């Protein structure tokens, strides 16, 4: 050690100093060599397929409700591709596959989109027969996604496509469904791009949906959350969705208003009638009146009105008829107030 830092001019010391410099040079180059190896290994990275719902790898969805599944590609290298084939495998059947949407520059429903089941056949309930055949594991339900970028730049990373599913209201299958990505082929021209499956997605089936959640699932699909809000009015008929639900109406048909409250005379008696859903545990109704259109007062059963009947209007509706009782007033206006929990 003393020789390495000596300023002596002896021949022996000079030789030792030279050897010392050589050793130091090797030590200095060695870490650079290691870094080059690390850098080279990163260029061999592959795509990882991520399955997420609102950014999460698991979700609880009640029967009668819908959910979307984002299929994204993650890479720590500059991977890109212009053709993709992958499958989604489900650990149990029973979901309703509603729709899918490729991210640009991929295009839906073109000659290059060879996904199965075909988009034109959706929605379809996934069963053990879906895509059954050679190459598909026994007892596993599959969705195949296949497409080619006909025009536009190659795809890099990010959301590749989104699929929409529904847990049917009559679902009675497994309590959990594992959805796994099975990569087949990703390529940039004729150059294959490696892809890994990722961790998959866990769907837990929650308690059966009731009330407004079931109703909106009949009229709105995934991606229409804003239109499905209770305060929204998608058909622009002046009735918010909460009122359309409360009176068993179609929120997309502005002409269907026959279930709304209306007053009529029956043998000289003033009666009020409206139709409501037969199963609506999250709804309550109040008859209210006003004499000045400013202050509304809750009507009293047996004092201001009586209940004439509640009869089935159809398999899913009930029609309620009330009779307005006479009183010491000259003018009154009535309305049905609804309360959505």
Compact description:
13% of the residues lie in helices and 36% in strands. By secondary structure, the protein is mainly β. The strands form 4 sheets. A 6-stranded mixed β-sheet has the order 6-5-8-3-1-11, with no helix packed on it. Strands 2, 4, 7, 9, 10 and 12 form a 6-stranded mixed β-sheet that branches. The protein has a 4-stranded antiparallel β-sheet with strand order 13-14-18-17, with no helix packed on it.
Can you lay out the helices and strands and say which pair or pack?
Blueprint: H1 11-42, E1 47-52, E2 58-61, E3 66-74, E4 83-90, E5 96-102, E6 124-125, E7 141-148, E8 158-166, E9 176-188, E10 191-192, E11 195-196, E12 201-205, H2 212-219, H3 241-246, E13 262-266, E14 269-277, E15 283-290, E16 297-298, E17 305-312, E18 317-324, E19 333-340
Parallel strand pairs: 1-11, 2-12
Antiparallel strand pairs: 1-3, 3-8, 4-7, 4-9, 5-6, 5-8, 9-10, 9-12, 13-14, 14-18, 15-16, 15-19, 17-18
Tell me what the structure shows.
The protein has 341 residues and is mainly beta. It has 3 domains: 3-42; 47-208, Immunoglobulin-like, CATH 2.60.40; 210-341, Sandwich (Immunoglobulin-like), CATH 2.60.40. The chain is built from 3 helices and 19 strands. A hairpin with a 2-residue loop joins strand 9 and strand 10. The termini are far apart.
């Amino acid at each position: 050690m003393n020789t390495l830092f000596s300023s002596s001019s002896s021949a022996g010391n000079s030789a030792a100093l030279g050897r010392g410099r050589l050793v130091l040079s090797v030590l200095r180059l060695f870490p650079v060599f290691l870094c080059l190896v690390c850098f080279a290994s990163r260029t061999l990275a592959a795509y990882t397929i991520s399955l997420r719902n609102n950014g999460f790898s698991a979700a609880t969805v009640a029967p009668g409700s819908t959910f979307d599944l984002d299929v994204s590609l993650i890479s720590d290298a500059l991977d890109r591709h212009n053709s993709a084939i992958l499958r989604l495998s489900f650990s149990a059947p029973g979901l309703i596959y509603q729709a899918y949407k490729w991210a640009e520059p991929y295009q839906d429903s073109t000659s290059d989109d060879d996904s199965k089941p075909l988009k034109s056949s959706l929605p379809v309930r996934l069963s053990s027969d879906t895509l059954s055949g050679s190459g598909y594991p026994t007892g596993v339900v599959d969705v195949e996604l296949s497409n080619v970028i006909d025009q536009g730049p190659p795809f890099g990373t990010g959301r590749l496509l989104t699929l929409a599913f529904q847990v049917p209201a009559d679902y009675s299958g497994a309590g959990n469904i594992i959805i796994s990505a099975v990569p087949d082929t990703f390529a940039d021209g004729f150059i294959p791009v490696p892809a890994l499956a990722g961790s998959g997605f866990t769907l837990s089936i929650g308690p059966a949906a009731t009330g407004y959640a079931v109703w909106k699932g009949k009229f709105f699909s995934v991606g229409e959350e804003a239109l499905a809000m209770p305060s929204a009015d998608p058909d622009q008929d002046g009735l918010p969705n909460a009122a359309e639900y409360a009176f068993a109406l179609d929120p997309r048909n502005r002409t269907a208003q026959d279930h709304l409250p209306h007053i009529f005379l029956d043998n000289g008696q003033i009666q009020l009638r409206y139709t409501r859903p037969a199963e609506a545990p999250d709804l309550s109704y109040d008859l209210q009146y006003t004499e000045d259109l400013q202050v509304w007062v809750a009507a009293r059963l047996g004092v201001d009105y009586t209940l004439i009947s509640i009869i089935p209007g159809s398999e899913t509706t009930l029609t309620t008829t009330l009779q307005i009782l006479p009183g010491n007033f000259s003018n009154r206006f009535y309305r049905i107030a609804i309360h959505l929990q």
